[in-house]
Amino acid sequence: MAKRLEGKTVVVTGASSGIGKSTAQEFARSSPKNLKLILTARRIDTLKEVAAEIKQEVGDGVQVLPVKLDVSNPEEINNFVSSLPEEFKEIDVLVNNAGLVKGVAQAPEIATEDLKVMFDTNVTGLINMTQAILPIFKKRSEGGRGDIINIGSIAGREPYPGGSIYCATKAAVRSFTDALRKELIATRIRVIEIDPGQVETEFSVVRFYGDKSKADAVYKGVEPLTGDDIAEVVVFAASRRENVVIADTLIFPSHQA
Ligand code: NDP
């Protein structure tokens, strides 16, 4: 499994915490001798700490490049691709993980700004990242090669009251991912969606405006997943034989309804 990742260049968006950080760590552990990791998020200082942790854990076989990137800003995405150092330009795997939720509110009360931030990040950001990286994949033989791994959510399949906009963003990710996979059918570019249920990250508390006791009350009785649980599946999907696409996966804790 690890052998198939050797020599690859992997981009993870939202790598400063939660699932993205775990995913970066899991890629590094899976191919500690020869891997290039590009970690992106808005908090560059936190990204640098993640990069240092990875180097400390696996050593110098993994090259790590932390890059400040707000995926909701198309200009930053264009600059990101054009200013990558030469040795990081040949990207093989894009993990579109960056995402957020802005509070819990009934549809009529949702602030226009919150709606915009959620769509700009979770949907437009993911699409713009994909559009920016696809030309790199398409230059390769047999119509193109590379992996696009999108982190959706159970919320994109089972919308819940108070989460209409977040759920709508994740449903949009799902439709985009499905259509893109079909568009690229004649290539070796794999388009993969992984939909987590509840995962213990910064996200779970943000959803309740930082009120941890409220978050705990809603999730009572459910032992959440960890970022590592999702990361293992991401790396598993990326390290299959080239002809195998783990197209669409839902992962949730045993007791989550
Ligand atoms: P975290 O809040 O821990 O991580 C979110 C990451 O996204 C951070 O690294 C954050 O970095 C980054 N991010 C947010 N906005 C932007 C932006 N505009 N540009 C670049 N990076 C951004 O939450 P999770 O790890 O839980 O979330 C990761 C993904 O998993 C999200 O897409 C989320 O919707 C999805 N998900 C999470 C679930 C859960 O229960 N936790 C369940 C289902 C899906 P920074 O702030 O430094 O920019």
UniProtKB/TrEMBL annotation:
GO terms for molecular function: oxidoreductase activity, acting on the CH-OH group of donors, NAD or NADP as acceptor. Coiled coil: none annotated. It comes from the Eukaryota. Keywords: NADP, Oxidoreductase. Belongs to the short-chain dehydrogenases/reductases (SDR) family. This is Oxidoreductase. It comes from Penicillium olsonii. The lineage of its organism: Eukaryota, Fungi, Dikarya, Ascomycota, Pezizomycotina.
